[in-house]
Amino acid sequence: QSILVTWTKGFKCSSVEGKDVVSMLRRSIKKRGVRGWAGGGTGEGGETGEVLSPHPLLASGTGTNACYMEEMRHIDLVEGDEGRMCINMEWGAFGDDGVLNDIRTEFDREIDMGSLNPGKQLFEKMISGMYMGELVRLILVKMTKEGLLFGGRLTPDLLTTGHFETRYVSAIEKEKEGLQKAHEILSKLGLEPSHEDCVATHRICQIVSTRSANLCGATLAAVLRRIKDNKGVERLRSTVGVDGSVYKKHPHFARRLHKTVRKLLPDCEIRFIRSEDGSGKGAAMVTAVAYRLAAQHKARQKILEPLKLSHEQLLEVKGRMRMEMEKGLSKETHAEATVKMLPTYVCSTPDGTEKGDFLALDLGGTNFRVLLVRVRNGMRRGVEMHNKIYSIPVEIMQGTGEELFDHIVHCISDFLEYMGMKGVSLPLGFTFSFPCQQNNLDEGILLKWTKGFKATGCEGEDVVSLLKEAIHRREEFDLDVVAVVNDTVGTMMTCGYEDPLCEVGLIVGTGSNACYMEEMRNVELVEGDEGRMCVNMEWGAFGDSGCLDDFRTEFDLAVDELSLNPGKQRFEKMISGMYLGEIVRNILMDFTKRGLLFCGRISERLKTRGIFETKFLSQIESDCLALLQVRSILQHLGLETTCDDSIIVKEVCTVVARRAAQLCGAGMAAVVDKIRENRGLDFLKITVGVDGTLYKLHPHFSSVMHETVKQLSPKCEVTFLQSEDGSGKGAALITAVACRIREAGQR
């Protein structure tokens, strides 16, 4: 669509201004019965020779105009902040508001008054080919009237508007034959020029054309300066595509224009390219580029389509999660269940009467923490924490179990010395964020390692016993290990200390898991029907049975295949922070191989597994981040990109993160609906305690997940409470609750 604002260049056809000229052309074609026209067009003067490049384009001929690629964030007339759009400046109207009045001459004013559009296109009337010859004619007339030329004799031809054409200016300014041409042209106008008259006319032409080139160069320099500022570069390298008869045919116009631009922009390297039939070929190229971009966009969308989940698909995921939950709870089907629904022996949440000093260990990733947690009740009710973080080297993560637990005990010893508590025996809670089968609160059998851990001699063993054995080997101190807990359970307990309605815990960080308070009558692996027990779902393994195969894409399969545990933790690999960056990298690789990204060039960095960390998704999707900053992130990764590439990368990040949040929401909807049905309620109000870097740091993950739960569980009002150090504080609180219950039993 193209609405004609105003006619220029002498056109005055009625009933066209303010109307869509493309629609008018289509109607005319339809009347003629011509078929196969798809549409496409450009602005005036062939300024679209490279319309999709970041460079400005200039037309200087009968009329004059320029266009350039402007940042979308600066174009208030169009919605959207991403990428760039070509701006048709219509700079011929520059000065119509009076800003050029101080440099307009009496000759400019006379031309304007005698034109078809007085007061309009004032800049164009000072520089373009339609008016340059007329300016020279008016100057010659005035100087002749004042007796300075042609012996003061005027001729009818010299007095006639339009009789001194712009092509005469070009001819007269030619180096060798200029004066001869001046004599021929002036004689043709009925004059009898002397040699001095010819020299003066040559000089007048030179002054008029030089002013035109200088004005054109000054305004072009302003455009280039803006592009430089937009890019934020110290030195701009850019190319200007130029078309138009004055630029092409005048012997000195181009050189003067280039000189002016370079003088005004000493910190820029500007190259000028002459367009060959920019207005015709350019229109076709814009159309061809539009078709190419549309085809590439369609190809990318087709690849991303399987990652975009409908409401019906999410309901299906929710239903399948519910089925797997039932299998895990049932004694009959537990062995074959992938969602293990492990009893934690945590049967009570904090009631506010807990007090004392407790140690907590937090092992759930590449960092390990030791904490001293002081729990106070009464008027001073609250939790005070001191902690120290220790790293776990990869060789220990993937070495022997003895080496791993000796390292943990070494860290505990260092912390006790750091706190000045060597020799003090305190109750200890151990947050162990890996799948465990618990037979008691202080006994946890490791079922399998996840998150990159591979320490031998641990799977199938009680991790509390492994810890106690390591303590005894060191022979420095003794500790009362009261509870071994999962970080998800710790998160639920921490938030339960703040909100009594919190009966669900969720982790979405390096890995992902959930827990909730299940009715004892449904926990068939533990005897007894009274009360509730927290169930550690271990939902990261959801789908390991193949029940999610129709939702897994080729990119999920590629990530799984090259992981440390192929075929395991499939749901976790679709939603957690450890894998989302790698899914994005695989998609970017696929796009690039197909020529849909990075100009089809795959860098060595892009081939490197793990190079695209999940934290980059959070940074790239940040609402306050401009595309230039996105480009700098990608360049930091060794990926040379255009702004268009940055838009595509951002879209891929958005699609992958959104799917993760939706799948997480579908799983959580299954949990809260089960709790509601367990309790026979028509409507449930419940709080979910949440922890994890992905949930906390990603700009949109939490809101998408919340909205998904709301849509899939309309009979539940779910509040999400962000946990502050659930894995550490939570272990101490579970230990405090256990000590409270133990002391009450002893009394």
Summed up:
With 747 residues, the protein is of the alpha/beta class. 45% of the residues lie in helices and 16% in strands.
What does this molecule look like?
The protein is of the alpha/beta class and 747 residues long. Among the domains are: 54-276, Hexokinase, domain 1 (3-Layer(aba) Sandwich); 343-507 and 725-744, ATPase, nucleotide binding domain (Nucleotidyltransferase, domain 5, 2-Layer Sandwich), CATH 3.30.420. Helices cover 45% and strands 16% of the residues. The chain is built from 25 helices and 18 strands. The strands form four sheets. It has a six-stranded mixed β-sheet with strand order 6-16-15-14-17-18, with helices on both faces. A hairpin with a 5-residue loop joins strand 8 and strand 9 (382-391). Helix 4 packs antiparallel against helix 8 (195-231), helix 7 crosses helix 8 and helix 19 (577-593) crosses helix 20 (614-620). It is elongated. It starts with 20 loop residues before the first helix and ends with a helix. The relative contact order is 0.09. It is found in: Cytoplasm, Cytosol; Mitochondrion outer membrane. This is Hexokinase-2. It catalyses: a D-hexose + ATP = a D-hexose 6-phosphate + ADP + H(+); D-fructose + ATP = D-fructose 6-phosphate + ADP + H(+); D-glucose + ATP = D-glucose 6-phosphate + ADP + H(+). It is an enzyme of class 2 (transferase). Residues 2-34, 301-497 form the Hexokinase N-terminal domain.
